[in-house]
Specification:
The structure is a single chain. Strand 3, helix 4 and strand 4 form a beta-alpha-beta unit. The chain is of the alpha/beta class and 340 residues long. It is globular and about 55 Å long. The protein has two domains: 157 residues, 3-Layer(aba) Sandwich (Rossmann fold); 157 residues, Aspartate/ornithine carbamoyltransferase (Rossmann fold), CATH 3.40.50. It has a five-stranded parallel beta sheet with strand order 7-6-5-8-9, covered by helices on one side. A four-stranded parallel beta sheet has the order 2-1-3-4, sandwiched between helices.
């Protein structure tokens, strides 16, 4: 959008309360809403959602519900996984893009949210401005808001899928050592990843990025208090060779202060190719990327067994299916038999 949204007071410090296993009717905004109890509840549903998706089960878990997918930024995986996942559970969706909304005629963002909530039971929102999610949550009085990515701030449902991918390949999410690389400052996925990894004990994350895009010292201290150890690396050669995973981020060109000056310089650092894997890989290493992928991982390496891209895509859909079932209050201990 050309015009900016108003920034609510203390928007940068805004944090919803922990879910504590209670999902029904709740807004889903950030990674630090989640706790071990909530993660375990979602985890119990993942095999059921996988079964429904892989076997084209005619599910009625979300029968009668309508979810509005309100996207102000381009999306492939997030939009399609919510769209297809909800439909696989028997729900319906309507997709709205910026150019089709009355905001083009001068309607306020708040006015758009108020009107859309009259037609649906939940809103999945993606927006380029970080404050949009909080404004939508404050505006909507009758339906939950699900964050599909808010500017450079948070992308909690992406990371839910990433953690279940981690669990599949590592057998656990606690006691791991990994690397988060490249544009950390502007990566909403990286921010949610730190938040959600902090749920689990004894995790250590190394970071490597151009200094302008590195994690802030205040954030390192914040996560230390939550039990997550973050260690900044100055040189790529400092990357430990025995890590469990690498999480590679693309440089967010649209969010750089001076992209013409800085993008090529930033984007040329930490390229995952065969040489990189030879230097820093090991037999147990897995490599994540939230996609879309630019030059940071070569096409040849994208096919390497270390990559878990396909599992990320699938587990993000299963996690979003489980989350929507919980937000709509449709969880049942025997959810498959009960709703088919």
């Amino acid at each position: 959008m050309e015009r900016g949204l108003p920034t609510p007071p203390e928007a940068s410090e805004f944090r919803p309360e922990k879910l504590n296993g209670e999902f029904k009717g709740k807004d889903i905004y950030s990674g630090d809403q989640f706790d071990l109890k909530s993660f375990n509840i979602i985890s119990e549903l993942i095999p059921q959602m996988e079964y429904i998706a892989k076997n084209a089960i005619d599910s009625r878990i979300l029968g009668g519900t309508m979810t509005a997918l309100l996207f102000y930024e381009a999306s492939t995986r997030t939009k399609l996984s919510f769209d297809t996942g909800i439909k696989q559970l028997g729900g319906q969706t309507t997709t709205e893009y910026t150019q089709a909304l009355s905001e083009a005629k001068g309607e306020s963002f708040e006015g758009t949210i108020k009107n859309i909530e009259a037609y649906c039971d939940a809103i999945v929102l993606r927006h380029p401005e970080a404050s949009a999610i909080q404004i939508a949550m404050d505006t909507a009085k009758h339906v939950p808001i699900i964050n599909g990515g808010n500017g450079p701030n948070q992308h909690p449902t992406q990371v839910l899928g990433d953690l279940f991918t981690m669990k599949k390949h590592k057998g656990r999410i606690e006691g791991l050592r990994g690397l988060v690389a490249r544009d950390i400052l502007n990566s909403r996925t990286a921010h949610s990843f730190f938040d959600e990894m902090a749920i689990f004990p004894n995790n250590t994350i190394y970071t490597i990025a151009p200094e302008e895009l590195q994690i802030q010292e205040s954030d390192i201290e914040k996560y230390r208090k939550r039990g997550l150890t973050i260690i900044k690396l100055n040189e790529e050669s400092d990357i430990p060779r025995d890590l469990d995973y690498h999480y590679i981020n693309r440089v967010q060109k649209a969010r750089l202060k001076n992209p013409e000056r800085d993008f090529d310089r930033f984007d040329s650092q930490t390229i995952v190719d065969d040489d990189y894997l030879d230097k820093y890989g090991n037999d147990k290493l897995i490599v994540f990327h939230a996609q879309p992928i630019g030059r940071e991982i070569t096409r040849e390496v994208q096919k390497d067994p270390h990559m878990v891209l396909d599992d990320q895509v699938r587990y993000c859909q299963y996690a979003r299916m489980a989350l929507m079932a919980l937000v709509f209050g449709r969880k049942n201990p025997n959810v498959i038999e009960y709703h088919i």
